[in-house]
Amino acid sequence: MTSLEAGTVVTLDVDREAPFGYFLTNGEEDVLLHDSEVPDEFDPEEAQTVFLFQDHQGRLAATLTIPNVQIGKYDWVEVVEVKESLGVFVSIGIVKDILVSKDDLPALHSLWPTIGDRLYCSLKTDKNGRLFGKLATEDVMRAVAEKATRKDFNKNITGWAYRLLKIGTFLLTDENYIGFIHETQRKQEPRLGQKVEGRIIDVKEDGTINVSLLSRGHEALDEDAERIFSYMQSRGGKMPYWDKSSPEDITARFDMSKAAFKRAIGRLMKEGKIYQEDGWSFIKE
C-alpha cells in the first residue's frame, strides 16, 4: 500500500474520533482531520477524500479542501508573504501557506515576487517529506500555452512574468500566449510573478509573441510633452533647456533621449504652448 504523502489527494476511512478531530486511515497509517476542517454535514461512516499537508507543527494533516495545486498539478498561486531568509509563501487555498524556496528564486532580491504577485506552481516534497512550491518549467508553460495569430498583432495584453533572463523576460498572458519582452522593450526588468501590461509587436511562426512594455509612439510623445510642460510650470513657466541643449543635460533632467526631447518640444511649439529664446524655453501667456 502506498504511504501517505503531503501534496496528494487520497480517499481514507474514518478510523476514530478524538477530542480535536477525526483520525483517518488507509489501513496502515493515520492522519488527523482537525475539528477546524470538519464541516457540519460530516458523516464519519463515509470514506473521505482529503488533501494531505503538514500542519504548523510539521505533522501530516488532512483537509477536505482540495486545492487545484497538487504534486503533478499546476495552477496560478498568489504570493502572500516574503521572507528573505527562506523565500516566498504562496496561498493554495488551504489553511497552511506553502513556501517557494529562495533556492528557486532569482539571485537578486529586487527581482523576487512581492505580495500579490502570481506564480505558476505545482508542489513537491524534499527528502524529509516537507511540502514546497515548485515553479513551472518552460516545458510546462509551453504545454498550457495557446498560439497567437497575426490578427493579434498590436493588441494590448496583460500577463505574468514567469522566467527571467539577462536578455529579457518571458510571460504568460491572460490568453495563455507565451510572450517575450526583450530588454530593449522595457524601462526596467519585471519581477518574477509580476503583472505586466504591454502590446504585441510581433507574432512568431510558432504562435509565441514578442511584447513591448514601452508606450506607442504617439503615447510616448504625449507623456514626454506633458513631463516637459509640467516641469516648466513648476519653474514659473520657463526652463534653461531648448532643442539645442546637450543630450547629456536632457537625459540627466528628463530621463529621455535628445531625439525624444526635440519631438516633444516641437509638438508643444506647434500647438502654440511654448516658445524658445536664447537657450531657454518659455510657456506662452
UniProtKB/TrEMBL annotation:
Residues 226-280 form the Conserved virulence factor B-like winged helix domain. It comes from the Bacteria. InterPro entries: CvfB_fam, CvfB_S1_2nd, CvfB_S1_3rd, CvfB_S1_st, CvfB_WH, NA-bd_OB-fold, WH-like_DNA-bd_sf. Residues 7-64 form the Conserved virulence factor B first S1 domain. It holds the Pfam family CvfB_2nd. Residues 142-213 form the Conserved virulence factor B third S1 domain. Residues 74-134 form the Conserved virulence factor B second S1 domain. Belongs to the CvfB family. PANTHER family: CONSERVED VIRULENCE FACTOR B. This is S1 motif domain-containing protein. It comes from Heyndrickxia sporothermodurans. The lineage of its organism: Bacteria, Bacillati, Bacillota, Bacilli, Bacillales.
